[in-house]
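Shipment paperwork, digital attachment
Item: protein structure file
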Amino acid sequence: MITLQDIQEAHDRIRPYIHRTPVFTNETINKLTGASIYFKCENFQKIGAFKARGGLNAVLQIIERQEANSLTTHSSGNHAQALAYAAKKVGLPAYIVMPRTAPQVKQDAVRSYGAQIIECDPTLEAREEGVRQVMASKGAVLVHPFDNDRVITGQATAAKELIEDLDTVLDAMVAPVGGGGLLSGSCLAAHYFSPSTSVFGAEPEGAADAIYSLKSGVVEKPSFINTIADGLLTTLSERTLAIIHAHVKDIYLVSDQEITQAMKMIWERMKIIVEPSAAVALAAVIKNKEFFAGQKVGIILSGGNVDLAKLPF
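Attachment content:
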């Protein structure tokens, strides 16, 4: 059980290494949705994504407890960068298993932090097998991208900051969901620091599993995977599902076209760079604006690591 104190201690632990990212609003988007939306801009975070928080919280505790001499994980990009960044900060080698289809901008960033990339096929099975081989050959400790209490607790600090930095109480909070680390952390932060705030997930139709897992209560696999939201391709774990099942009201599905339109709107109207995965939450609010109309809604913009040579618009 992740406690309120765990989240507070995680925030204190990682604070020297992260940005307290800004919260933006946009009049045009508010008029379109009929809601008052507050964007937590984790695209401005270290390594360009919220995942720096969870990676640092896990790695700093590993160092404090002298649990490892090297680190490993598997990731399509943002957690890979987070672990590479955290490992560099504490002086440990990191071995990152990445699907060869991961965006080049994310691979380049991982290498820039000094981590070694081991390429694999773009499947969860291949990623997990790659990590097992690294653990066996290097003696590295796995920092899982979401199936890890320390990582989830670190991710919770983004929503904690959003709640603290507003002079109003949110009616709702929406976060994208892939493996569930951000959504788990966000709903825990709301549970402890703003219990009247309802939390919702947003998921691509082309990687839909969390919505069915929430309904069935068991981890479901997607029927197919085909989406531009490359950061949301993984399925929930038993750990993240348990938290989401207890604290998340619902999960909304959006199409790639809706994701692209929301992403373009953020670029054009807010003048900030976000990746497709980060636009999923706004796409869900726009698609369900009748539900969110009149509400104060917090949205976690999860990251901005987009390949500028391959924009979807």
